[in-house]
Automatic annotation (TrEMBL):
The chain crosses the membrane at residues 7-31, 78-97, 104-125, 140-166. This is Uncharacterized protein. Keywords: Membrane, Transmembrane, Transmembrane helix. It comes from Potamilus streckersoni.
Length: 181
Protein backbone atom coordinates (compact mmCIF):
# COMPACT_ATOMS: atom_id res chain seq x y z
CA UNK A 1 0.00 0.00 0.00
CA UNK A 2 1.38 3.41 -0.96
CA UNK A 3 1.63 6.13 1.64
CA UNK A 4 1.89 9.16 -0.65
CA UNK A 5 4.66 10.77 -2.60
CA UNK A 6 8.18 9.45 -2.46
CA UNK A 7 10.67 11.76 -0.78
CA UNK A 8 12.81 13.58 -3.34
CA UNK A 9 15.69 16.03 -3.03
CA UNK A 10 13.38 18.98 -3.79
CA UNK A 11 11.35 18.16 -0.66
CA UNK A 12 14.51 18.38 1.44
CA UNK A 13 15.40 21.66 -0.31
CA UNK A 14 11.96 23.02 0.65
CA UNK A 15 12.58 22.08 4.28
CA UNK A 16 16.04 23.71 4.28
CA UNK A 17 14.77 26.91 2.63
CA UNK A 18 11.88 27.04 5.09
CA UNK A 19 14.14 26.60 8.10
CA UNK A 20 16.53 29.30 6.85
CA UNK A 21 13.74 31.76 5.99
CA UNK A 22 11.96 31.20 9.30
CA UNK A 23 15.15 31.50 11.33
CA UNK A 24 16.30 34.69 9.59
CA UNK A 25 12.87 36.33 9.90
CA UNK A 26 12.66 35.31 13.56
CA UNK A 27 16.11 36.74 14.33
CA UNK A 28 15.43 39.98 12.45
CA UNK A 29 12.01 40.48 14.05
CA UNK A 30 13.29 40.06 17.60
CA UNK A 31 16.45 42.16 17.13
CA UNK A 32 15.76 45.32 19.17
CA UNK A 33 17.36 47.98 16.96
CA UNK A 34 16.02 48.32 13.44
CA UNK A 35 16.71 52.05 13.42
CA UNK A 36 19.04 53.98 15.68
CA UNK A 37 19.92 57.61 16.37
CA UNK A 38 22.37 58.06 19.22
CA UNK A 39 20.92 56.21 22.22
CA UNK A 40 17.40 56.21 20.74
CA UNK A 41 16.29 53.14 18.83
CA UNK A 42 13.21 51.60 17.28
CA UNK A 43 12.56 47.90 16.85
CA UNK A 44 9.60 45.69 16.10
CA UNK A 45 8.79 45.02 19.76
CA UNK A 46 10.22 47.99 21.64
CA UNK A 47 11.53 51.47 21.19
CA UNK A 48 13.50 53.80 23.38
CA UNK A 49 13.54 57.57 22.93
CA UNK A 50 16.39 59.39 24.63
CA UNK A 51 16.65 63.11 25.24
CA UNK A 52 20.11 63.89 26.65
CA UNK A 53 20.36 61.39 29.53
CA UNK A 54 16.68 60.54 30.03
CA UNK A 55 15.36 57.56 28.06
CA UNK A 56 11.71 56.56 27.77
CA UNK A 57 10.98 52.96 26.77
CA UNK A 58 7.75 52.08 24.95
CA UNK A 59 6.34 48.78 23.77
CA UNK A 60 5.15 48.15 20.23
CA UNK A 61 1.49 48.79 21.00
CA UNK A 62 1.89 52.43 22.00
CA UNK A 63 1.59 54.71 19.00
CA UNK A 64 2.31 58.37 18.58
CA UNK A 65 0.44 60.59 16.16
CA UNK A 66 1.88 60.41 12.69
CA UNK A 67 3.60 57.06 13.30
CA UNK A 68 0.75 54.68 12.59
CA UNK A 69 2.86 53.36 9.73
CA UNK A 70 5.23 51.88 12.33
CA UNK A 71 2.40 49.89 13.91
CA UNK A 72 1.36 48.59 10.47
CA UNK A 73 4.96 47.64 9.68
CA UNK A 74 5.24 45.81 13.00
CA UNK A 75 1.94 44.03 12.38
CA UNK A 76 3.00 42.86 8.92
CA UNK A 77 6.36 41.64 10.21
CA UNK A 78 4.59 39.75 13.02
CA UNK A 79 2.34 38.07 10.43
CA UNK A 80 5.52 37.18 8.52
CA UNK A 81 6.84 35.41 11.62
CA UNK A 82 3.53 33.58 12.17
CA UNK A 83 3.30 32.42 8.56
CA UNK A 84 6.98 31.45 8.66
CA UNK A 85 6.38 29.25 11.70
CA UNK A 86 3.28 27.73 10.08
CA UNK A 87 5.36 27.04 6.97
CA UNK A 88 8.00 25.35 9.09
CA UNK A 89 5.38 23.11 10.67
CA UNK A 90 3.94 22.13 7.27
CA UNK A 91 7.41 21.61 5.76
CA UNK A 92 8.19 19.13 8.53
CA UNK A 93 4.85 17.40 7.87
CA UNK A 94 5.61 17.40 4.13
CA UNK A 95 8.90 15.57 4.64
CA UNK A 96 7.55 13.15 7.22
CA UNK A 97 4.07 12.34 5.81
CA UNK A 98 4.74 13.00 2.08
CA UNK A 99 1.20 14.10 1.12
CA UNK A 100 0.10 16.27 -1.80
CA UNK A 101 -1.93 18.60 0.41
CA UNK A 102 1.18 19.81 2.25
CA UNK A 103 2.83 20.89 -1.01
CA UNK A 104 -0.24 22.92 -1.93
CA UNK A 105 -0.53 24.48 1.53
CA UNK A 106 3.16 25.38 1.59
CA UNK A 107 2.96 27.27 -1.68
CA UNK A 108 0.27 29.54 -0.23
CA UNK A 109 1.82 29.83 3.23
CA UNK A 110 5.25 30.76 1.86
CA UNK A 111 3.63 33.25 -0.50
CA UNK A 112 1.73 34.86 2.38
CA UNK A 113 4.85 34.95 4.56
CA UNK A 114 6.87 36.63 1.80
CA UNK A 115 4.09 39.13 1.12
CA UNK A 116 3.80 40.21 4.75
CA UNK A 117 7.57 40.32 5.24
CA UNK A 118 8.08 42.48 2.15
CA UNK A 119 5.17 44.80 2.97
CA UNK A 120 6.37 45.36 6.54
CA UNK A 121 9.93 45.92 5.42
CA UNK A 122 9.09 48.29 2.57
CA UNK A 123 6.77 50.35 4.77
CA UNK A 124 9.58 50.65 7.32
CA UNK A 125 12.08 51.57 4.59
CA UNK A 126 9.74 54.15 3.11
CA UNK A 127 8.88 55.92 6.36
CA UNK A 128 11.87 55.48 8.67
CA UNK A 129 13.13 59.02 8.08
CA UNK A 130 10.22 60.39 10.12
CA UNK A 131 11.67 58.67 13.21
CA UNK A 132 14.59 61.09 13.50
CA UNK A 133 14.48 64.42 15.24
CA UNK A 134 15.84 66.28 12.23
CA UNK A 135 14.30 63.97 9.57
CA UNK A 136 17.74 63.06 8.16
CA UNK A 137 19.63 61.67 11.12
CA UNK A 138 19.59 58.11 12.30
CA UNK A 139 20.52 54.95 10.51
CA UNK A 140 18.96 51.66 9.55
CA UNK A 141 20.43 48.51 11.02
CA UNK A 142 20.90 45.07 9.48
CA UNK A 143 17.51 43.49 10.46
CA UNK A 144 15.86 45.44 7.64
CA UNK A 145 18.12 43.67 5.14
CA UNK A 146 17.67 40.34 6.89
CA UNK A 147 13.92 40.59 6.40
CA UNK A 148 14.40 41.09 2.67
CA UNK A 149 16.58 37.96 2.62
CA UNK A 150 13.92 36.06 4.60
CA UNK A 151 11.25 37.17 2.12
CA UNK A 152 13.39 36.04 -0.81
CA UNK A 153 13.91 32.66 0.88
CA UNK A 154 10.14 32.32 1.35
CA UNK A 155 9.57 33.05 -2.34
CA UNK A 156 12.28 30.52 -3.26
CA UNK A 157 10.69 27.93 -0.96
CA UNK A 158 7.29 28.49 -2.61
CA UNK A 159 8.79 28.10 -6.09
CA UNK A 160 10.74 24.96 -5.16
CA UNK A 161 7.60 23.53 -3.51
CA UNK A 162 5.68 24.12 -6.73
CA UNK A 163 8.39 22.48 -8.82
CA UNK A 164 8.47 19.52 -6.42
CA UNK A 165 4.69 19.16 -6.61
CA UNK A 166 4.79 19.14 -10.43
CA UNK A 167 7.59 16.57 -10.39
CA UNK A 168 5.61 14.39 -7.96
CA UNK A 169 2.44 14.65 -10.03
CA UNK A 170 4.26 13.75 -13.26
CA UNK A 171 5.60 10.55 -11.70
CA UNK A 172 2.59 9.70 -9.57
CA UNK A 173 0.58 6.62 -10.46
CA UNK A 174 -3.20 7.11 -10.21
CA UNK A 175 -3.53 3.69 -8.56
CA UNK A 176 -1.52 4.98 -5.60
CA UNK A 177 -4.21 7.54 -4.82
CA UNK A 178 -6.91 4.86 -4.79
CA UNK A 179 -4.88 2.73 -2.40
CA UNK A 180 -4.55 5.57 0.13
CA UNK A 181 -7.53 5.47 2.43
Amino acid sequence: MATGFRLIALDIAVLVLTILGCLIQFLAFFYPKWWQEGNSYVGMLMESRCDSEICVDKNALKMEGGQEWLFVSRLFEAFGVVFGLAGLMFAILLVSLKKKIFHTLLIYIHGAAALFIFLGDFIFLGCHKSLGVEQKKGSLNFPVGLCIVAGILCVAAAVVTGIALVKHLLTWDELEEDEIV
